[in-house]
Design brief:
Elements lengths: L1 E3 L3 H9 L3 E6 L7 H11 L9 H12 L3 E8 L5 H16 L1 E7 L11 E4 L3 E7 L5 E7 L2 H17 L1 E2 H8 L7
Parallel strand pairs: 2-3, 3-4
Antiparallel strand pairs: 1-7, 2-5, 4-8, 5-6, 6-7
């Protein structure tokens, strides 16, 4: 088994894919030290996406080169503070070219309950996290049948997921913290 830890080798995947980079996001919380201060500011009403600028620039460059980023986020209700933060950030990533869509946990029945990246429909990375939601790295999966199954799940998730603005309009009354 090949395992890629966070760092330059993992980051290189986002620069070297040829056509598509897709992620299924299934967690209600991510505990990223890089995002902690921005999340704190968001919750305090101080909106600033500057921590995300490197990602936005990379997505803009990939999009300009004809490469495509897309994600489906599985969300639970009530929305966690982190998911609300991610929805706000998604407005900026969408403008950069990262197509992020949303699906409720109920609608995601049958999809995996873990995050993964799928590059060019052929390179699969199952993401691993600690019990307190910190990213450990990703297991590279080389089994062709498993890769085909994850392509199927990608297609199913994308078929049922909707854009952020449509999701908010449709489900805002379900978030009982509003």
């Amino acid at each position: 088994m090949t395992f890629i830890e966070p760092g330059p080798e993992f980051a290189k995947l986002f620069e070297t894919f040829e056509h598509t980079a897709y992620r299924l996001e299934t967690r209600d919380q991510y505990n990223s030290p890089r995002e902690a201060e921005s999340l704190r500011k968001f919750l305090a009403g101080e909106l600033n996406v500057s921590y995300h600028e490197n990602w936005l620039n990379m997505v803009r460059q990939a999009t300009a080169e004809g490469r495509h980023f897309s994600r489906v986020r599985v969300v639970s209700f009530p929305l966690t503070d982190y998911i609300r933060f991610g929805m706000w950030v998604a407005g900026y990533t969408r403008e950069a070219g990262d197509d992020i869509r949303y699906i409720t946990r109920e609608q995601a029945a049958g999809l995996p309950d873990y995050d993964y990246w799928l590059f060019d429909s052929r390179k699969l990375l199952k993401m691993r996290f600690t019990d307190d939601d910190q990213f450990l790295g990703a297991e590279v999966i080389e089994d062709p049948a498993e890769i085909v199954q994850h392509n199927h799940w990608r297609d199913a998730a994308q078929h049922h997921a909707i854009e952020r603005d449509e999701f908010v309009a449709k489900y805002e009354q379900r978030d009982d913290r509003r």
